[in-house]
Write a structure and sequence with these properties.
Elements: H1 3-25, H2 28-31, H3 45-48, H4 60-71, H5 73-76, H6 92-95, H7 99-108, H8 123-136
Helix pairs in contact: 4-8, 7-8
Length: about 150
Amino acid sequence: MTPAKIAFGVSLVFLVSGLALAQKDKPADSQKKDNPYEELTRAPEKARGRRNPLENDPEVRVAGKKLFERHCAECHGEDGSGTKKAPSLRAEEVQGATQGTLFWVLTNGVVRTGMPVWSKLPEAQRWQIVSYVKSLGAPAAPATAKPTSPPR
């Protein structure tokens, strides 16, 4: 073997070893696929308890839908069912979250996933979007066949 081949082999061993050690030192949760709804659990208690001041206004959802179509549908899908870019807003995690939690996430964004910070939208518009998202509800369960009566 030539000295160049030996040096290349040694370099390759160090490179592979370094990559293996770097992967080993990563926290276990970073090796798993991130939970797209994890940010909902990070909302402070004060934010979770916030009430939507517009919740009794019948026009809020209509306005929220228009804002959703303009600002959110590109990533979350026209009906909020999610896309490759962003998760479903009809999921149990979102629908079970308080309106205050959703407002907090909308206001602060989720930078690590690419969700923008929407704090520049007027507060009333953010509450309108939250109202619309909550009105989406969970996805419909698949229809199941009705059981047949046993023969007599």
